[in-house]
UniProtKB/TrEMBL annotation:
Keywords noted in UniProt: Metal-binding, Transferase, Zinc
Span of the signal peptide: none
InterPro entries: Cu_polyphenol_OxRdtase, Cu_polyphenol_OxRdtase_sf, Cytotoxic_necrot_fac-like_cat
Gene Ontology terms, MF aspect: metal ion binding; S-methyl-5-thioadenosine phosphorylase activity
Catalytic activity: adenosine + H2O + H(+) = inosine + NH4(+); inosine + phosphate = alpha-D-ribose 1-phosphate + hypoxanthine; S-methyl-5'-thioadenosine + phosphate = 5-(methylsulfanyl)-alpha-D-ribose 1-phosphate + adenine; adenosine + phosphate = alpha-D-ribose 1-phosphate + adenine
Pfam families: Cu-oxidase_4
Family the entry assigns: Belongs to the purine nucleoside phosphorylase YfiH/LACC1 family.
Keyword Transferase: yes
Biological source species: human gut metagenome
Stated name of the protein: Protein of hypothetical function DUF152
Lineage: unclassified sequences, metagenomes, organismal metagenomes
Length: 70
């Protein structure tokens, strides 16, 4: 199922527009896959300057991320 259709991850932005809570969607999918214990960091890319946020700084270069499964 698409994350956008998952009721567990629907949210509202601080401006009242529809949003997507990606962490909640991933946690819901992990739970359905049998993962019993998930720890969420609770960090916000908007508030924490350690992380890039297009919402906070729309002028940007390029960024990429890679995840390797072992």
């Amino acid at each position: 199922a698409s994350l956008a259709r998952e009721s567990e991850c629907g949210s509202r932005t601080r401006w009242g527009t529809p949003g997507l809570d990606v962490a909640a969607g991933v946690q819901a999918q992990l739970a359905r896959a049998g993962v019993e214990h998930v720890v969420r960091g609770g960090w916000c890319t908007w508030e924490d300057e350690r992380f890039y946020s297009y919402r906070r700084e729309p002028v940007t270069g390029r960024m990429a991320g890679v995840v390797l499964a072992g």
